[in-house]
Amino acid sequence: MRWITQDLPGKVARELFAARDAGAGEQQQTVILARALGHAYFREWGHRAHGLHVAFSDVEFADFSIG
Hints:
The chain has 67 residues and is mainly alpha-helical. Helices cover 43% and strands 0% of the residues.
């Protein structure tokens, strides 16, 4: 199990809300979140792990806040 605490830019929240408002399902929204987490957490905004594929799966708990 991996606990991730990661700040993501506002554009990710906007993309998620826009997808939801356009009727995107949970799977499509999960892809958006996985891409953002992969870029921010695993690749450190392009500084490492180039080409790494991130899948956001088997989630037991997620807590999001907008600040």
